[in-house]
Amino acid sequence: MKHIDIVAGLLQKNSHSFHNVVPFDRTKDRLLQMDFTSENATLNDEILEHTDLFSNHIQQQLQAAGATYGIGGYNEHRTIYKRSSLFNGTSAADRRLHLGIDIWGKEGTPVFAALGGMVHSFAFNDHYGDYGATIILLHQLDGFPFYSLYGHLSLADFAGLKEGIYISRGTEFAHFGTPAENGHWPPHLHFQLIIDMEMNKGDYPGVCSLEERDKYLNNCPDPDLVLQMMSYAQKHWD
Question: What is the pTM of this model?
């Protein structure tokens, strides 16, 4: 059995014990499924090139739907990464396939540990289009290790943080960062699961090329196994 299948099975087995990663109330909060593929005609180049316009666009979408958060993106081939040269390669190797789930909301939104874990590493990936402030936790379930990556955070979340310290389940340890500290994106959380960090610290690819799709999807399980939010998302609200 592949390692990813083992970890996915353990996540499903323990799903009842995970804490919400953001304060989403399933009984009353609306959750908007967002689309950043070429099918979304509302996103033009001008919006993508200006972070303030992009942020306003996200907030307008949420307000129009009466939604507290927007969500989506796992295994989604996105056009929004053309806004940064960070994701460009040869024409066949441009990185456009998203490996995590994004939760869009207001800056300062608290982020909680879904399950207990040790701080593996953290870094300020300060490039246009990058993660900005990033924290990676190491977890174990039944002896099998895996990692959770939290990107686009606030720099203030690094205060007192050290590699090796333990963060208990349900601890508020991070917040959605501002564009100036989150890689110049509208406020959101990039949440990603990783089996093998491949010697990376404070960073791991959150986007890959279509050529590398199988490799990365076999190392990055569906984050909704932990979040358990996608079943509540709707593309449109009446």
Answer: 0.93
